[in-house]
Amino acid sequence: MKSILVFASIQIMIYIFSMSNTLTISIIVLGSALALFAGVYLSALIKDKRHRRKAVNAVLELR
């Protein structure tokens, strides 16, 4: 399923890039990079909060 979604997104990007000028392509690339960065940052932030909560609970249980 994941490979089908990747293939479809690549095909959509090729179609958009073929119809766009340089400015539009640069805006699309910048927006994609920002969206990717935000997604990775948020997932790392959530994972860090979960890990911190588990660590605090483990310390409190030891006492």
Would you mind describing this structure in some detail?
With 63 residues, the protein is mainly α. It has one domain (2-62). It is built from two helices and no strands. It is elongated and about 65 Å long. The mean pLDDT is 86.
Helix-strand layout with pairing:
Elements: H1 2-18, H2 22-62
How would you concisely characterize the structure shown here?
This protein is mostly helical and 63 residues long.
Essential attributes:
63 residues, mainly alpha
**Major beta-sheet overview:** none
* Euclidean distance between termini CA atoms: 47 Å
Strand content: under 5%
How many beta-strand elements? 0
The number of domains is: 1
Kindly state the percentage of residues in helix.
Answer: over 70%
Count of alpha and pi helical runs: 2
Q: Averaged pLDDT, please?
A: 86
Q: Given the helix and strand composition, which structural class is it?
A: mainly alpha
- Low-confidence region ranges: none
Inertia-based shape: elongated
- Over all CA atoms, what is the radius of gyration? 20 Å
Which series of helices and strands comes N to C?
A: HH
